[in-house]
Amino acid sequence: MKLRSEVAPQDTWDLSELYTDSQTYLADLEVIRGMADELAAGKGHLADSAEGLYRLLSLNDRMGILAERVCAYARLNFDSDMGDPERKDLYERLDYLLSSIGEKLAFMEPELLTLDLTDFQKFIEEKPELSLYSWMMTKLFRQKNHVLSTEQEELMTRMGSVAGSFDKIFDDLTVNDIVFPTILDEEGKDLVANEANYRKALESKDRGLRERYYKALLGTYEKYVNTITSTLAGNTKYHVLAAKSRNYASSLHRALAPNNIPIEVYDNLISTLRGQLKPLQDYLDLRKKVLDYTDLHFYDLFVPLVQRKARSYTFAEAKDIVLAAVAPLGEAYQANMRRAFDERWIDIYPNKGKATGAYATGVYGIHPYSLLNFAGTMDDLFTIIHELGHAMHSFYSDSTQPFVDASYCIFTAEVASTVNENLLFHYLLEHSETSEERAELLSQHLDGIRSTLYRQAFFADFERFMHQLVEKDEPMIPQVLCAQYRSLYALYYGTGFTTDDCLTFEWSRIPHFYRPFYVYQYATGISAAISLAKGILQDGETAVSAYLNFLKSGGSKDPIDLLREAGVDMSTPQPILRAVEDFRETLDALKDELLG
Ligand SMILES: [Zn+2]
């Protein structure tokens, strides 16, 4: 693999737009430190006057914009070559600065909360420029009924630092302490049945290997199930207790409050999907038929249904395809995305020491950047269009919204990326030349919906059960969790699927359960994206302009309102039903290709 210094500049991102050298970057760290000190000097007087409040809030914005720029520079520069000690040093200096600023400015939120909406409106009358912060303050004031006295808040903070231990213990146990067993692979060589080999083993054509791997992996979690149940129970109890202490009706209410997501959105996802399991079960039947098995197990879900000699793409080809695929979003969108390629917003190829994976990040006042590790596969095409979907969301939001309202939350973030993936899927399908190519695309699309919609909703379903156990003061023990898990598999996957005993322990390997009520957003996100992409392709102009408005709106409204204006109402079953319909149509098309 090439060294960073050997990579052609036109294949790398141009960080000189952020800083031309490390001296100016370091100088800006000092500027930020000075701004934080100036803000900290306002402690105790934040809400004294309209004029003073405006001065401090706009200083806070200027600091935030500069911080976004130094953070982007430090991270992108470091990720380009993580083995370079100079880049590492620049990154660590920022880390240190940020944590000291965090402590210094921790007073701001509680102090702002001593105001209420009426006080703030009076301030706006005195100083109309303060209306810039109306949305920020509205969101903040929503917490008012859930903020405790100063002493209680201090106690909660200390308790919170202990609460993180459950996750940490789970991590230490599963990453550091447990020794996963070694099994034999297809060629009789040693293969460790650990998480790192998950995809590789489960995509193997050798069924015997898949079974050995899966049973060895889950059997290991089973051995430690009492410890893992204790960490999970401890974590869940903490979240239930924290919700109660802050006057929330449940831990679910507390988790959804920051983005003002109605509980119905969560319940609606699960209840709608529970009524729409037939297409999923039909898909499992098709797998069984194509693979020619009499029974279907979890370890049969990932082996590709279509074995095709993979086509590879150059980056120039990938660029053309991706730009053509977003044509339905209009020329302006396309032209803005072209800038990412032509103006070096993208770091394209892997090099020695470069961060793995892919991401996009917005930089307010500059432009977004994206890291890729392009290897020329079809998956890479989807990765590019996904990350550039995030990048365009930031681009539109940052160039439309004031800094304070520009950043969008997770609930809407994956919509922009997944809409683009859907457009690419339709583009490639339309331009496919052979039946195998179509079958592969259809099959990937189905697996995407299965793992993002059905599987994440399944997890959300289980998570709600776990929290309700604690809320009802019932014991959280392995037998209860396994029994619930078995019944959910029976419900979701149906009678054609064999739930092996080891599968009933699967919950014990899912790290996301330590971050309550997070994964449902993958399921709602893909549903919203499928609905929007369909609208864009079928209804054209009006759907496109509503969608572009959504991108431009950033975080200026509640996510549910933003999506409703874009054309999907997540509090109704419709978007979920449309996603299921898309799954059903794709399944029928795949059946045509595979069975004729
Ligand atoms: Zn993403």
Keywords:
596 residues, two-stranded antiparallel ribbon, 25 helices
Fold and architecture overview:
The chain is mostly helical and 596 residues long. It has 25 helices and five strands. It has helices at 22-40, 50-80, 85-104, 108-112, 117-126, 134-141, 150-163, 165-177, 198-202, 207-223, 225-245, 251-256, 263-274, 278-291, 315-325, 331-342, 378-400, 403-406, 410-430, 435-471, 478-493, 520-539, 541-553, 559-566, 574-595; strands at residues 182-184, 190-192, 346-347, 359-361, 369-371. The strands form two sheets. Strands 3-5-4 form a three-stranded mixed β-sheet, sandwiched between helices. Strands 1-2 form a two-stranded antiparallel sheet. The relative contact order is 0.11. Bound molecules: zinc ion (ZN). Zinc ion binds at residues 386, 390, 414, 417.
Helix-strand blueprint:
Blueprint: H1 22-40, H2 50-80, H3 85-104, H4 108-112, H5 117-126, H6 134-141, H7 150-163, H8 165-177, E1 182-184, E2 190-192, H9 198-202, H10 207-223, H11 225-245, H12 251-256, H13 263-274, H14 278-291, H15 315-325, H16 331-342, E3 346-347, E4 359-361, E5 369-371, H17 378-400, H18 403-406, H19 410-430, H20 435-471, H21 478-493, H22 520-539, H23 541-553, H24 559-566, H25 574-595
Helix pairs in contact: 1-2, 1-3, 2-3, 8-11, 11-20, 13-20, 14-25, 15-19, 17-19, 17-23, 19-22, 20-21, 20-22, 20-25, 22-23, 22-25, 23-24
